[in-house]
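Ticket closed. Logging final result for TIGR01212 family radical SAM protein.
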Amino acid sequence: MRVVLSVGRYFKKRFGGRVRKIPISLQGFTCPNIDGSLAKGGCIYCDNESFSPSLIKLDKISQVKMNFSLTTNPLLEKQLHQLEEQFYWHSEFHQRKFGVGKYMVYFQSYTNTYAPFDTLKALYDKALSFPNVVGLSIGTRIDCVEDRLLELLGEYVKNGKEIWLEYGIQSVYDKTLELTNRAHSIAGAKEMFEKTRAKGVKVCAHLIYGLPEESPEMMLHSLDCVLEWGINGIKIHPLYVVNGTRLAKLYKEGKYEPITMECFSDLIVESLQRIPADVVVQRISAGAHDDTLLAPKWCFDKNIQMRYLRDKLKAVGIEY
Ligand code: SF4
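Final structure:
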């Protein structure tokens, strides 16, 4: 039986014990294809709350939004406070309940590098100062990482911290990126991966299977490309439709057909046979366990999904 390098196994090997990723969602963060600088409305499937379960409805009074040209950030004190509160709440819970003793701070919601440099530095410095934090994982897009930020992240690595940039790639097809309103092309992704790894920062690529008008062959081609460009980790998830998104409208109009569980699981089996043993497979499932989920219904329960996937993988000699 071939054992996949899951994130739990990787952390155990790397840090000698369990490490918990602590999800952080901060007020004021947004995305350049939501705020109008590149596009409006965001990706057609984006409902950040369903992708980030810990995202809470934050103070709506303030209209300040992060971007690269914001000269002063009146929200910084509040963001630092939220970071501290969320870190201690989660870490104490996981310590008490599961005996976890080490943490990686995961800046998860929206585009977490889309903010003034000083703001990012203040937030990352603070996160790394918390007790038993081994590093950071930062969710972003390939067009939102400035060179000076990579320098800073490289300095953290030199000081012994483990830093991951999680790039939302989703597909390597420009046509798909356009259809889904990603507001960037795939050009430059390979270079971005190389620049990131050159600083000692690890690259995790996110892919979505089941995007509109994509065949299984196209999805596997996206996987082959990111593997060829050089990644340290990967997250693959099925596209599911959340109420209130533009994808929901397409689905209701009969213009989008979600991926079936059988097709997705076959693709996962094939994918895990292609992914090298030293690439950390951080995720192979996704869903929304509430009434925001419109389709497909099999994405409602991640436990059932995982049991099904594990059985399929076992049948071909792979343990996840
Ligand atoms: S890039 Fe991410 S945060 Fe931005 S709109 Fe798309 S899914 Fe949402």
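The two ends are 10 Å apart (CA to CA). No further action required.
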